[in-house]
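User: Some background: our group keeps a shared notebook of sequences we're curious about, and every so often someone picks one and asks for a predicted structure to add to the entry. Today it's my turn. The entry only has the sequence so far, pasted here. Could you supply the structure so I can complete it?
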Amino acid sequence: MSKSTSPITQFYNCRILRDHKLVEDYLYVQDGKIIDPAKMFWEENRVPDVRIDCKGGIVSPGYIDVQLNGAYGFDFSNDTEIIQEAVDNVSKGLLLQGCTAYCPTTVSSRPDVYRKVLPYLGPREGSLENGAAILGAHVEGPFISPLKKGAHEEATLRTAKNGLADFDECYGLDNLRKNVAYVTMAPEVEGIMDSIPELIEATGINISSGHSNASTAQANEAHKKGAKMVTHLFNAMAAFHQRDPGIIGLLGASESRPFYGIICDGIHVHPHSVMIAYYAHPTGACLVTDAMSAQCLPEGYYKLGKMDVDVHNGHVYIKGTNTIAGSIATLAQCVRNFIKFTGASKVEALENATLHPAQMLGIAERKGTLQFGADADVLVLDDNLNVERIFVGGNEVTEDNVKFHHKVQKEVAAN
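Assistant: Of course. Here's the predicted structure to add to the notebook entry:
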């Protein structure tokens, strides 16, 4: 293989998140990848072409959000006619937040919606032109429990009594193969439990248990059959009970335990509950925003799928109810909140937004890490974990070179 003549960038005067600790070292990037400096020095006799002074800051992989319904006025389930515009602008806006990769999320919808939007939510490389990398869609529902539907429209919910045929009719199996990273479903819904292994084999997607009233026995069986995550732990599931803790009980499993998404906005989950989850299974935590279209926008009325939601005082509710309907938090805020809620180290908090989501999706060799060969999606943070500088594919992200716009909210109501 011929040697690359591309410029080499060195990050110096920094503490690098690597091997579960912060180490004082240099980071080298070439051709959009983290490279081994030994090869650069000894085999190629090169020195860095560009040096970036991190001023004593922390160098972390870029953040990964595996559950985001929309932002900046766009909604991935509702904006079917402008879905490319929605994807492009949300991806760029997220990149400027320090979120360098994500799973655009759809709420329970009808089959025609999935066929329209999922082809636009499939994997896409991150770049200054594209914005944050898309890791494949997160399809949340409609194979979920009506008892735990949360902000999902009940009329869209369905069962899988016909097995794969129902998933094919709903999403299109080829759509799942090409465009979807994982699907949230309720194990106790008719046909789901027996379909999990078959669906994984047929499409290669990941399965997450959520919006479910499952018992611990049912949740454990689903996990044994291949489900590897729990969607927004504590939310939209049976409450903890000492004799049957439901899906939450998987945190105490004696065998392998699943990854779990957790929303650290201080609204969805009490800080004490966050701490309980952290102490029970620290290496399974994946911080998620579950953000909807009002993220980074003023208070008012917005859409989540086809449902109207009311955003005020940092809360999001289905209009006219007290049902929580997503968040407006950023992942950077959730990382800082996690430390405040639990007393966890910076390393643990950062890995919850980088390494663990990548491990859950099976892509930790290239995302969520700064090991040699990984994608050069890099954040420079201060000691309070505020994002100072952002790099995607080794290129620095600024407001000048990543332009995006907010959607004009025609559906915002005056009262």
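Suggested note for the entry: Residues 410-415 have pLDDT under 50 and may be disordered. Residues 275 and 343 are 9 Å apart (CA to CA).
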